[in-house]
């Protein structure tokens, strides 16, 4: 096992791996000493992967590792890389297998007192209404024509078919639609995506009813429609098997198309295609189509939540605060070498966190900054942030996406007992319904970093500013 790259502390919570060898830029690593030490554990490749990313053609300024950074496929999870749109490349490892995995937050008119005593009914109805786990169908019935419409149109297709409102579209990153090309999505991926629209999936995906436990900035919270003790719902899911199969097949295509590149890389998992090549354009069209699918998927689950809350509490105004993705690559304009330029920003386990004033931020939030949602581990707090003033300077407008793992799923399943974990959560007032005990144990809170520390660093760096903290009430998992 190679040694960890040498890190130099350059400011509070800011470290750097200097440019050496075939690196084209340095690596910026953001984190406190405890978070950095977790990246330097024996056998962990987070920092090595960050160094490898810095070798990519066309990469600008620096490769970024965020406070929740941990080892991933090729890129570290919690990684950001911006590449020149003329000379740069696109790498599936910098986006992830779960294309447009993301988080949305729904606000309700209820307070915590309104749901006390109804938690078991609520969690059971959510579990019955929204399919969880591998396969298991979807909230919507879709045929192949529907699927192609979703891949091309995202939330616009959902609105046209009365599964979304104009408010939903206006409060979603990219208005819930990128220029996807269904023709570029592999046939097997299409098959896997059929009848899974509105399904949670497995792993770390969840749907969680929460209460707003603490408000740090009342003005921004009010702009987001949030207040103390309010009941909200957080949904974390992505593009399901369709996205995974799309990523898998394009990695194979890249390897076949560019064998010399594959052989030259410090890690074959970094395989890329030059942006000028047709296969890169094909992948981008397929990746954007999968992103549209993920937005439609979270929207369909939102419709399921609305159904359950109306049936359980008689409320009809469950509204979308915002929906933000953390596995995608998009063209954006950023300051590079003293001038504004267009770059392709890869965010892999990284949340866009644009500050106030950016035109991409919905009009309703443009004066305060883009909402950012960072879930903690099961049983821990989650956070609402807004885009920080220094995010553009430090991270290409990005912050963390979660707590970040410190323990593999296999190790967690060995060390924790599902029944004991469920009892502990219930004692904390958290009602959990999962498809299997294995899902519970692999998502045990101790398998993750300290989300409070991740948020503290994000706030201190001013890349994501604390707005509110939420606590879990009821959670469903695959």
From TrEMBL:
The active site is at 401 (gmp-histidine intermediate). Mn(2+) 2 binds at residues 236, 326. Monomer. It comes from the Archaea. GO terms for molecular function: GTP binding; metal ion binding; RNA ligase (GTP) activity. Essential for tRNA splicing and maturation. Acts by directly joining spliced tRNA halves to mature-sized tRNAs. Joins RNA with 2',3'-cyclic-phosphate or 3'-phosphate ends to RNA with 5'-hydroxy ends. It comes from Halobaculum marinum. This is tRNA-splicing ligase RtcB. Its EC number is 6.5.1.-. GO terms for biological process: tRNA splicing, via endonucleolytic cleavage and ligation. Pfam families: RtcB. Binds 2 manganese ions per subunit. PANTHER family: RNA-SPLICING LIGASE RTCB HOMOLOG (PTHR11118:SF1).
């Amino acid at each position: 096992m190679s040694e960890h790259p040498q890190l130099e502390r350059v400011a509070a919570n800011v470290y750097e791996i200097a440019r050496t060898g075939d690196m084209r830029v340095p690596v910026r690593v953001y984190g406190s000493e405890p978070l950095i030490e977790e990246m330097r554990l024996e056998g962990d490749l987070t920092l090595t992967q960050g160094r490898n990313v810095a070798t990519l053609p066309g990469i600008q300024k620096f490769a970024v590792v965020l406070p929740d950074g941990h080892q991933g496929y090729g890129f570290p999870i919690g990684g950001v890389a911006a590449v020149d749109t003329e000379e740069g490349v696109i790498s599936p490892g910098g986006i992830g297998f779960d294309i447009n995995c993301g988080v949305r937050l729904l606000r309700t008119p209820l307070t915590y007192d309104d749901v006390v005593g109804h938690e078991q009914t609520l969690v059971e109805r959510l579990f019955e209404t929204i399919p969880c786990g591998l396969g298991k169908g979807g909230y919507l019935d879709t045929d192949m024509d529907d699927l192609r419409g979703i891949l091309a149109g995202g939330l616009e297709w959902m609105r046209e078919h009365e599964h979304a409102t104009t408010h939903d579209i206006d409060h979603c990153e990219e208005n819930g639609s990128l220029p996807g090309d269904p023709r570029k999505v592999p046939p097997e991926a299409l098959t896997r995506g059929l009848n899974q629209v509105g399904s949670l999936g497995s792993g770390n995906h969840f749907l969680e009813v929460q209460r707003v436990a603490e408000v740090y900035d009342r003005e921004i919270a009010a702009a987001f429609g949030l207040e103390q003790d309010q009941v909200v719902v957080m949904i974390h899911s992505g593009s399901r098997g369709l996205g995974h199969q799309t990523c898998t097949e394009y990695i194979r295509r890249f390897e076949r198309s560019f064998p010399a590149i594959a052989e030259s890389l410090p890690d074959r998992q970094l395989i890329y295609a030059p942006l000028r090549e047709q296969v890169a354009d094909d992948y981008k069209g397929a990746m954007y189509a999968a992103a549209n699918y993920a937005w439609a998927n979270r929207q369909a689950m939102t419709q399921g939540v609305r159904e359950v809350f109306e049936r359980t509490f008689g409320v009809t105004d469950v509204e979308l605060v915002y929906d933000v993705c953390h596995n995608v690559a998009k063209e954006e304009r950023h300051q590079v070498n003293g001038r504004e330029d267009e770059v392709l920003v890869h965010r892999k386990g990284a949340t866009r966190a644009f500050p106030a004033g950016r035109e991409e931020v919905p009009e309703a939030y443009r004066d305060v900054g883009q909402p950012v949602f960072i879930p903690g581990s099961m049983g821990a707090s989650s956070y609402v942030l807004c885009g920080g003033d220094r995010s553009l300077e430090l991270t290409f407008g990005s912050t963390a996406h979660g707590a970040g793992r410190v323990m593999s799923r296999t190790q967690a399943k060995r060390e924790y007992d599902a029944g004991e974990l469920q009892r502990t959560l219930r004692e904390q007032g958290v009602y959990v319904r999962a498809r299997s005990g294995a899902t519970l144990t692999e998502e045990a809170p101790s398998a993750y970093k300290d989300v409070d520390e991740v948020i503290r660093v994000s706030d201190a760096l001013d890349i994501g500013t604390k707005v509110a903290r939420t606590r879990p009430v009821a959670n469903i998992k695959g």
